[in-house]
Amino acid sequence: MDSSVATASSGQKDMLEPPSLDQQYSDACTELEQPENPFIFRVLQEVKLDSNILIKNITIKIAGNNRLLPVVKVTDGDFQVLAAIFSNNLFLTGLDLRYNLLTDAGAAQIGTFLEDNRSLRYLNLMFNDIGTAGAESIAKALHRNETLTHLRMTGNKVDNKGGMFFAAMLQINATLRKLDLGDCDLGTQSLIALATVLNHNESIKAINLNRPILYSEEEESTVHIALMLRANSTLIELHLCKHEMKNFGVERLCDALYENRSLRYLDLSCNKITRDGVRFLGKLLKLNNTLEILDLNFNRIEDDGAFYLSEALASHNRTLQALAVTNNSITGQGLVALAEAMKTNQVLSYIYIWGNKIDESACVAFADLLESSRLKPTSTDVEPYVVDGVTYLAELSHGLKRHYYWTPSYGEPDNEDANASLAIAPVAEHL
Fold it and tell me: Parallel, antiparallel, or unpaired for β 265-267 and 206-208?
């Protein structure tokens, strides 16, 4: 009697505890006649399966740029095995495959996997070798997929035609909330198509269109994006880094944002914006009450641009929480003006200034902000120190999205000090 009860209990335990993922992986490799990838095996070995697995959100990170483990990068054949073991696992909500060797053939398998998957919400494919055909496979799979909310295609050269496939997908898919097509070699045609689709799309909350390949100086894509911002009422986060944007484009965007009531995060970094373009932004900030993050890093706004911003922030705007103006040829005068604006504006809590022409007056101004606790040490990218009675500033590894392209070898990859945008206006839990 006791023996049979013990056997039954043992049997129930076996039923509750599925085979470990590394064992499932080994079995699938044997069945599909694929060689085992030791890096994948080690990552899966660390995932613990238990009876509470279904109530957990598990993101499995098989990133090819992992510096803590010996890496054998994931290939198309490796993904075939991963798809086999994850196809019926409802606990998998995130899969990070960045910096691997997946090609269009692997993207076709990813597409098939996405068509049938009912649990995956986050998929990171940044900097693989996926091209236009692979983009078509993934985009068409998302016509049917109803669970994925965040897709990163960053750095895959899907080109203009690939961008068109994603634009067509956004006309059908109503689940995706965050789409990253940065560094994907999009062209003017696909940018305009994406902007046109976003006129009516009500699900996308964040889109990254960084570094397209543009051959015209007339900023047609910026004009269409501005028109979209007039009509769109759901977009929260917009990245337009490296768009060759000049003051004309900034003026078009500002005109549109007077009517927009949803955008909270605007990234205009690495463009050709000067003080005249920031004059339009300063006027906008006096009236806009939704924008919370403004990224102007790596432009050329100079002191006059800093004055326009500080005037708006000191006396009018009370919604902007983060301002990034690193590497903008601002001297001590402009930086002091921004520091003074923070004394009267209690809402602006994050400011990043490194890479400008920092003199002693700027060092003292920001040291005062930090010493008075008006500015938290984790909310800026500088730290004061004194040598022979003179105050200097040292750089800190803090910012809005420092870990966008890479993850640190220690600490949390989505640390909020280095990625403050996740703390202020999060659309998803990952950059």
Answer: unpaired
pTM of the complete model: 0.94
Q: Please list the helix, strand and coil fractions of the chain in percent, rounded to the nearest 5, in that order.
A: 40, 10, 45
CA nearest 152: which of 175, 183, 174? 183
Task: Report the C-alpha gap between 351 and 41 in whole angstroms.
Answer: 43
Nearest to 353 by CA among 325, 376, 374: 325
Side-chain-facing half-sphere of 205: CA atoms under 13 Å: 11
Rounded CA separation 109/162 (Å): 17
Cα–Cα distances (Å) from 267 to 93, 205, 234, 255, in that order, read 28, 14, 17, 16
For 367, residues 6+ apart whose C-beta sits below 8 A from its C-beta are 384, 391, 393
Place of tokens 């979209």: 228
Instruction: Please write the tens of the pLDDT for every residue from 138-147.
Output: 999 999 999 9
Nearest to 21 by CA among 114, 95, 102, 123: 95
Angle between helices 21-32 and 76-86 (to 10 degrees): 120
| The residue type at 206 | A
- Exposed (0-12), middle (13-18) or buried (19+): which is 96, by Cβ within 10 Å? buried
User: What are the distances in angstroms from CA 314 to CA 171, 266, 291, 317, 344?
Assistant: 42, 20, 16, 7, 6
Of 295, 228, 271, which is closest to residue 431 (Cα–Cα)? 295
From CA 426, how far away is CA 415, in angstroms rounded?
Answer: 13
In degrees, to the nearest 5, what angle opens at C-alpha 155 toward C-alphas 152 and 157? 110
Amino acid at 262: S
The pLDDT assigned to 12 comes to: 45
**CA nearest to 325, candidates 338, 342, 344, 311:** 338
Alpha helix (H) residue ranges in 288-420: 302-315, 332-344, 360-371
**DSSP classification of residue 49:** P
Task: Give the H/E segment covering residue 400.
Answer: none
Query: pLDDT, tens digit, for every residue of 241-261?
Result: 999 999 999 999 999 999 999
Going by DSSP bridges, is the β-strand pair 293-295/382-387 parallel, antiparallel, or unpaired? unpaired
